[in-house]
Please model this.
Amino acid sequence: MTASQPSREPRIAAPARTGIVLGLAGFAAVVVAQVHAILTSPAEADMGHLQKIMYVHVPAAWMTFIAFFVVLVYSVKYLWRRDENDDLLAAAAAEVGAVFNGLTLALGMIWGRPTWGVWWAWDARLTSTLVLFLIFIGYLALRAFVDDAGQKARWSAAVGAIGAINVPIVYMSVKWWRTLHQEPSSPSTLDPAYTLGLRLNAIAMLILTIYFIRKRYEIARVERASEHAAQAAAMGTGGR
Amino acid sequence: MALRDDWRRVRAIAKKDLVSELRGKAGFNSVASLGITILVLLGLALGPDAAVLRHAAAGAVWLATLFSAVLAFNRSFQSELEGGALEALLLYPGPRWTVFAGKLLGNLAFVTAMVLIVVIAGVVLFGVRVPDAWPSIVGVLALGVIGVVVLGTFYASMASRSRAREVLLPLLLFPMLVPVLIAATTATRALLGADLMHEAGAWIRLLVAFDLVFLIATFLAFEHVIDA
Amino acid sequence: MPSNETFVIAAYSITWVVLLAYLAYLMRRARGSRAEYDRLTAGPESGR
Model:
């Protein structure tokens, strides 16, 4: 067995151009949607222009949940089929989800400070979003502290699936916990005047999210292919 | 009968863990002591106002329990790690779930005993007035302990074999136990008071649902996790 | 407390900082991973 045989790993294709187009489209869409929303939304009675924060905060929150849903689906799929790529996609979605989750929290606090007078008020939505963030972090930490690829994949999938099951339970329990006390008003149902702007921003964010997850997934696959190539090279050297 | 063999295996694993715990009693004693120490620290940090402490009692007991329990969970897989006994366990014929069930029962016994001590200490230190409804509180404690032990055992089976087990187990476990913490402390607080609004019932139902959901989920997931 | 408008500006600024920073991270990591992969697959194939 010579060391000069072609790599057994199929060569990863150069990044598809659709990737770049998707990214540009996503960013452009976000710009357009935000400009539209800012220019067309009226100032509110008591909150002035504060409501405009909803155009970034709410879509960020929705992207967080979508990403988590992707983690759930591909975690379960990995446990079922043991296809390495499913694990890599779940991990990509988790990382992107964590980013949007952090952003959601930051924006929630920025909205909360002028509204409630405090940076944090333990309201149901933000608190459960914070717990979700910690679950994401746990998932990513697990991957960081496990070296064996197979173990990493199986454990992440189990943790991701079981974590996802808990999300509605966490939300419900925090909500009940809050209803016993004074509930600070959450940025919940918006005036219909704002719905169109919100939907546009959400769709724009979604395009961007899909781009981020695909890009991160592509990176994961290339890195995994490098690992395989390095192992193959090491074994080839040892087999001589 | 296959099922009877499985149960024998479960009991054997649980018994092995408990016997080694009783022999090396240092383990249980130090974990229980840690629980009490945490209660003392919480009392010092939150007190000395008696009314404040009484209100904080439920939360304090549960926090002390959680922090001490993670030590118990990591230890429950420790003995297998040293000496490669986990691989040996898995080589024996029989379904994987028996390993999980055995570990679960062992941890349940351990944590229950620990909680008993922590609760008694908490009642004393935080000036809790034990109400007539105390059997319900015992029920809430039991349901909470089950939730903690089910998820704790499950995550410990992975964390204990990773590179950073001391931080990874609490990091994974604590966010997942948020519903248990909220439900158990709120229900306990309500029952310690007069539970005028009959809140405790809803929280107990939540705990039951939580325990069932994760008992099933962890049993299903364990076989994917245990392959050495 | 600063005006409400300041908070709105802060919100949109943070949003863009995060999105662009994450994009930069992805681009950098993509470049690095491809370079590594090319290096690893070019080596053995060039024969030794």
